[in-house]
Specification:
By secondary structure, this protein is of the alpha+beta class. The protein folds into 3 domains: 177 residues, no CATH class; 33 residues, no CATH class; 122 residues, no CATH class. The protein is 45% helix and 12% strand. It has 16 helices and 13 strands. The strands form 5 sheets. Strands 10, 11, 12 and 13 form a 4-stranded antiparallel sheet that branches. Strands 3-4-5 form a 3-stranded antiparallel sheet, with helices on one face. A hairpin with a 5-residue loop joins strand 6 and strand 7. The termini are far apart. The C terminus is likely disordered.
Length: 456
């Protein structure tokens, strides 16, 4: 009996010895062992099934005429005959025949599957890149690559080995990369779906070069940076339990760290992508639409905007947004009053109130450098200008009443945990509030140094 067959019989023997068993009744150690035994037996079954499929395919060759096994079983194709005999689905029978045929082009992998070293799922993802190169590659190099990948599969998950297979494929067929790139460029697309339940689905495919450029920017602002953490240092009077404004006790040493950003990496990527496009809309070189740079047009009744209760609508989107979101957009982007008659006739068109001019934004960028919330790395060009005293409450649209915030911190600023105010020296100050505790006020400068202490 061949060594592989002996190992297969041993795997089934180990499985049979512990059957029947219920995974729910096993300890952690027993479950891990059980999973390995089941998987080993499954790999040998995969090898047997693909071996049968390969032989059905060979014996059903059309050149055999009436001697074709498929014809004898009343089928036109080998997978039809396999479906009849095994009573599996047509799709599964066809998949087995195709996979077995592909493995025959890579004898090292074919033997590994037959020996139970690789299962079907492993072989499929690992072989796919090599199969694309096998027709033009040196057979000796292909055998070396396959051997290396089979050895790797003994220690690594199939997904990790598949990455190595893609590297090998590029080595085996270096000329195949450029045609693949051209095909990828033709398939690129980006779509924005319609709003449903307050969300719009973003889908698309990007060539590797474009994706890498976007990923580099996203990763730079999503990944934590060493040494960038900032603490509100409880020094001076605040350390003695007196808040600078006398309203709340200062934080104790156990609460000196600012709040942790609760966003997931995926959420941060979405916020960064939004910031990039918002910055692009303000760029001088961006094409205009109707004489103006790309803008979000929000329609909201005046009483709703002022009261903060009710709904608003963005032009082109079916779902409404909250009045709070409308206030935030107006805070940063400006507004224009339009008086309508009960029938919808325009009675009066007010002048556009620009909340912050380009010159004011440049001044804010020079002062704040970026989002002023500690630990936030978003640069000035990606931020929104925020009124420290809301414009709806009479706050002036001036540099002395403004600070730069990224979209996320602009979104949460009214609900905490951060609070902002303008310092006596014309520099914004920030603190954070936790229940009945509050940190000292500190100068709100972009990515301040860790030794930053309490503001004067």
């Amino acid at each position: 009996m061949a060594e592989a067959e002996q190992e297969g019989c041993a795997a089934f023997a180990r499985l049979t010895a512990i059957l029947p068993t219920s995974p729910q009744l096993l300890t952690d150690d027993q479950l891990v062992e059980y999973a390995g035994v089941v998987e080993a037996a499954g790999r040998f079954l995969d090898g047997l099934r693909l071996g049968v499929a390969r032989e059905f395919d060979r014996r059903s060759d059309e050149t055999l005429g009436e001697d074709s096994l498929a014809r004898k079983l009343g089928a036109r194709k080998p997978w039809g005959a396999l479906e009849t005999v095994t009573r599996t689905s047509a799709g599964e029978a066809r998949a087995r025949v195709i996979e077995a045929s592909n493995l025959a082009k890579l004898p090292v992998f074919e033997q590994a599957v037959a020996d139970g070293v690789l299962g079907r799922a492993q072989a499929e993802v690992i072989c796919a890149p090599i199969l694309k190169a096998v027709s033009v590659a040196d057979p000796v190099a292909v055998e070396i690559a396959c051997t290396e990948l089979v050895n790797l599969s003994a220690a690594l998950p199939a997904s990790a080995v598949a990455e190595a297979a893609r590297v090998w494929a590029a080595v085996l067929d270096p000329d195949g990369i450029q045609p693949q790139e051209k095909a990828a460029v033709e398939k690129r697309f980006l779509t924005l779906g319609r709003a449903r339940n307050g969300l719009v689905k973003l889908t698309g495919l990007l060539p590797v070069e474009q994706a890498a450029a976007i990923r580099a920017v996203l990763d730079a602002y999503v990944n934590p940076r060493a040494g960038s953490s900032v603490a509100f240092s409880p020094t001076g009077p605040a350390a003695d339990g007196i808040d600078p404004d006398g309203s709340k006790p200062a934080l104790t040493a156990t609460l000196e760290e600012p709040p942790v950003d609760s966003r997931s990496a995926k959420q941060k990527r979405a916020d960064v992508l939004h910031a990039v496009f918002a910055a692009a809309a303000r760029a001088p070189e961006t094409p205009t639409m109707g004489g103006a740079h790309p803008s979000i047009l929000v329609t909201v009744p005046k009483d709703v905007l002022e009261s903060g209760r009710g709904a608003a609508w963005i032009d082109g989107e079916a779902d409404p947004i909250s009045s709070t979101a409308a206030q935030r957009i107006a805070d940063s982007g400006g507004y224009q009053e339009v008086e309508l008659s009960p029938t919808g006739e325009v009675l009066n068109l007010g002048r556009t109130e620009r909340c912050f001019t380009p010159a004011q934004r440049r001044a804010l960028a020079a002062r704040d450098k970026g989002c002023v919330i500690p630990n936030c790395d978003v640069p000035a060009r990606w931020t929104e200008a925020h009124h420290l005293k809301a414009w709806r409450d009479g706050g002036p649209t001036d540099v002395i009443n403004a600070a730069l915030l990224c979209w996320w911190h602009h979104f949460i600023i009214d609900d905490g945990p951060y609070q902002l105010r303008m310092g006596d020296d014309g520099v914004p100050e920030v603190r954070w509030v936790f229940g009945s505790h509050a940190s000292p006020w500190v100068k709100a400068v972009h990515r301040p140094a860790p030794e930053l202490t309490r503001a004067a």
